[in-house]
Amino acid sequence: MPKIDVNKVAEILKKNQVDPALMRKLIEEMNIAVQPDPGEEEKPPPVKKQFVFVVSDPEGKLPKDDLVGWVLQIPESESPATTLDRIHRAAYEFNATKKGQLLPIKTMGDTLENVPAKHFKAVDTWVKTKTPVLMLKSNNEIPSDDLKVEKGQRLDRDEES
């Protein structure tokens, strides 16, 4: 619906010789109607986010190289050990379809990136990241530096406190 300025409407009403009292009343109501609601303040655009999974490696058993993976969800009552089997079943189910026979899925990455959600839903699995995300290693410790941080203040290691 096109928007029109209240002043433009007032000019049209004057041109058509509308009663001045009625015109004033209409313009006042239109001014009230076009004022933004107090709850409708302009919000900044949402921040784009990405998934990252951090693995605790206090004994340093993981390799030094970067690793990638995917984030999935399964029912809470199920064992996480069944996750790979669920992915395999979704791939088998997809490969049994007409599209799957034309372009069969052969790798884990292809499965998670290209198989439609309905095949994962059939095996109670939800893929949260279709593209692999970087895995970060942590030694599971927080450094105990003598840095003091005020509430709401960012921790910048370059600055002295």
Order of helices and strands: HHEEEHHHHEE
Name the beta content range: 5-15%
Sheet bearing the most strands, described?
3 strands, mixed
Helix content: 25-40%
Total strand count, please?
A: 5
Low-confidence stretches: none
Average pLDDT for all residues: 83
Per the principal axes of the C-alpha atoms, what is the gross shape?
A: elongated
- What is the distance, rounded to the nearest whole angstrom, between the alpha carbons of the first and last residues? 56 Å
Describe, in short, the structure shown.
It contains six helices and five strands; from the N terminus they run H-H-E-E-E-H-H-H-H-E-E. The protein has 161 residues and is α+β, with helices and mostly antiparallel strands. The chain has a three-stranded mixed sheet with strand order 1-5-2, with no helix packed on it. A two-stranded antiparallel sheet has the order 3-4.
Task: Offer a few descriptive terms.
6 helices, 161 residues, single chain, three-stranded mixed beta sheet, alpha+beta, two-stranded antiparallel ribbon
Structure description:
The longest helix has 15 residues, at 20-34. This protein has 6 helices and 5 strands, in the order H-H-E-E-E-H-H-H-H-E-E. The protein is an alpha+beta fold. Among the domains are: 1-37; 64-138, no CATH class. The strands form 2 sheets. Strands 1-5-2 form a 3-stranded mixed sheet, with no helix packed on it. Strands 3-4 form a two-stranded antiparallel sheet. The two termini are 56 Å apart. The mean pLDDT is 83. Helices cover 34% and strands 11% of the residues.
